[in-house]
Design goal:
This protein has 13 helices and eight strands. It is an alpha/beta fold. It folds into two domains: about 30 residues; about 260 residues, Alpha/Beta hydrolase fold, catalytic domain (Rossmann fold), CATH 3.40.50.1820. β3, α2 and β4 form a beta-alpha-beta unit. The longest helix has 26 residues. It is globular, with a radius of gyration of 20 Å.
């Protein structure tokens, strides 16, 4: 075999192995401990790194937890202050006495927002977290400090369109076997190619969340209508959904003309976990575009 051809083949194998290592590290990324942020718990479990003049607050969805956003906390902490919190009753946060609802979850985030020194706050909410973000944004403190919302796999409409019979079947199954049903519902949201460590980690989190809290929050979600909140929000609202879950943009724009929609291709519900590299790059560009449009790009660099 000629030497040049042999070298070329060796180089191809080196690049192939490096690619495999990179993919493996990205797949395991959400499960790895990061040094770019710290987490602590009193009543509420909060992860944060306060390094930038613009703050990003990541809000998990139904049955989730703050550390679902590990990859994003690590990636964006270079340029921004970043925060993620276990919503009340989720993960390591204490349960609240009030009835579980979208507004209750938003209320739990209000104290966090009050403590953030930055006056330009961007919310990133996944699933029901997108609606919690909207509820928070139109609160008294939200109107003062929250400039934008990025709703991830969320905000398809201001209310849920699932047929009542279908919802009753899901509810009955959750009531009779919450852990098993919640786990299976979560497993169905992942692609077969996803790292099973990630899948089981997320499924365990959803299944282990308090049943009464989860069902109460789900019931509020199924009966909500957030048209008023959407109409009231004055900031930028970008819906970042996959192709299989497109938002009703025309209807949403008729309520609030500032609504925008961006597609992240044919991925699954937990795209920020399954393809963190792509998601982070897309979100990063969208955040920069928002800051440029508001004239706050000067705040982009860390303190």
């Amino acid at each position: 075999m000629p030497i040049k051809i042999g070298i070329a083949i060796c180089l191809k194998w080196v690049f192939y192995l490096l690619t495999l290592l990179q993919v493996a590290s990205l797949s395991a990324d959400p499960l790895m401990k990061k040094d770019s942020y710290s987490c602590s718990s009193q009543q509420l479990y909060i992860c944060k790194n306060e390094t930038g003049k613009v703050a990003l607050v990541f809000i998990h969805g139904w049955g989730g937890r703050a550390l679902f956003w590990r990859s994003q906390l690590d990636y964006f902490s270079k340029d921004y202050s970043v925060y993620a919190m276990d919503l009340p009753g989720h993960g390591d946060s204490k349960m609240v006495k009030a009835e579980p609802s979208i507004s209750t979850m938003a209320g739990g985030l209000e104290n966090l927002v009050k403590q953030i020194e930055a006056n330009h706050i961007i919310l990133i909410g996944h699933d029901i977290g997108g609606y919690i973000a909207l509820s928070l944004a139109v609160s008294e403190i939200g109107r003062e400090k929250i400039e934008a919302i990025f709703a991830v796999e969320s905000m398809v409409d201001t209310k849920v369109s699932m047929p009542r019979k279908q919802y009753k079947r899901v509810l009955k199954s959750l009531q009779s076997n919450f852990e098993g049903t919640a786990r299976q519902m979560t497993l169905d949201l992942f692609s077969a190619e996803t790292d099973h460590k990630i899948i089981n980690w997320v499924a365990d989190s959803v299944a282990e969340t308090d049943q009464q809290l989860s069902l109460g929050l789900l019931n509020d979600f199924m009966n909500m209508d957030m048209s008023s909140e959407l109409s009231s929000f004055q900031g930028d609202l970008v819906i970042l959904n996959t192709e299989y879950n497109p938002p009703r943009v025309d209807r949403l724009k008729s309520i609030n003309p500032k609504v925008m929609s961006e597609s992240v291709g044919w991925s699954e519900h937990f795209i920020f976990l399954e393809n963190a590299l792509l998601f982070n790059e897309v979100l990063d560009e969208l955040i920069k575009t928002h800051l440029e449009s508001t004239g706050d790009m000067r705040k982009h660099s860390p303190q």
